[in-house]
């Protein structure tokens, strides 16, 4: 693993986890209503779910798929197409306020919060693309595979945890701003642009690898 390879991975994952998505919007919605002590079970549940996804996709499934080049290339192309589709959906979204309202919780039980965080993480379409398509492309063959997965996995979990906390923390402080249509449109278009950039990056790596 080279420094440049890790830096590329860091920038790519940073832009994805901090761009608006199901988990970030969920954290923002609950940051508007909850005390910060109630946010931690959600973050822990989400990160545990992401850890399971890393094990299932990066350690298991992709290693099997990579043994068949044709299938692996097909999965990569499908992941890129899906990112473009998500970008299209984000670009054409009109309202974020209704989503925030529907995603907020009125639950005080820690186990319920933990379960909801885990469910949102597992059902997030970005999870499949990230762990099934993006992660494996940064694994350098001939080097210690498990060590690379641990380093990349920890990097992702730390960034994901921090983004959840940041969205929850600022959710309460920018509540009035979020209701403005111009701000909502900006969020969606920024998210769409990020997804297109990620898809372009993966496409370049696909045809230069």
Which secondary structure elements does this structure contain, and how are they paired or packed?
Elements: H1 3-18, H2 22-33, H3 40-65, H4 69-91, H5 97-103, H6 110-123, H7 125-137, H8 145-171, H9 175-178, H10 181-208
What is this structure, in a nutshell?
This protein has 209 residues and is mainly α.
In round numbers, the mean pLDDT is 75
**SSE arrangement, N to C:** HHHHHHHHHH
**Ends apart, CA distance between termini:** 15 Å
In quaternary terms, these chains amount to single chain
Radius of gyration equals 17 Å
Model regions low in confidence, pLDDT < 50 over at least 5 residues: 100-105
Helical content band: over 70%
- Overall structural domain count: 1
What is the β-strand count? 0
Report on this structure.
- With 209 residues, this protein is an all-alpha fold.
- The chain has one domain (3-208).
- Helices cover 81% and strands 0% of the residues.
- The chain contains ten helices and no strands.
- The protein has helices spanning 3-18, 22-33, 40-65, 69-91, 97-103, 110-123, 125-137, 145-171, 175-178, 181-208.
- Helix 2 packs parallel to helix 8 (145-171) and helix 3 packs antiparallel against helix 8 (145-171).
- The protein starts with a helix and ends with a helix.
């Amino acid at each position: 693993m080279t420094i440049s390879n890790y830096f590329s991975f860091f920038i790519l994952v940073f832009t994805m986890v901090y761009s608006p998505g199901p988990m970030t919007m969920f954290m923002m919605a609950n940051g508007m209503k909850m005390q910060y002590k109630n946010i931690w079970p959600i973050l822990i549940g989400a990160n545990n779910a992401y850890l399971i996804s890393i094990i299932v996709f990066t350690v298991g499934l992709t290693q099997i798929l990579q043994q068949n080049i044709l299938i692996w290339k097909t999965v990569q192309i499908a992941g890129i197409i899906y990112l473009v589709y998500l970008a299209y959906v984000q670009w054409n979204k009109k309202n974020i306020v209704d989503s925030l309202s529907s995603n907020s919780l009125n639950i005080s039980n820690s186990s319920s919060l933990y379960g909801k965080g885990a469910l949102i993480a597992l059902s997030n379409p970005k999870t499949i693309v990230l762990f099934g398509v993006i992660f494996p492309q940064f694994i350098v063959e001939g080097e210690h595979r498990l060590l690379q997965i641990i380093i990349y996995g920890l990097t992702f979990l730390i960034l994901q945890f921090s983004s959840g906390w940041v969205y929850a923390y600022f959710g309460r402080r920018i509540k009035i701003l979020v209701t403005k249509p111009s701000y909502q449109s900006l969020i969606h278009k920024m998210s769409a642009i990020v997804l297109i950039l990620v898809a372009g990056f993966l496409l370049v790596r696909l045809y230069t690898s």
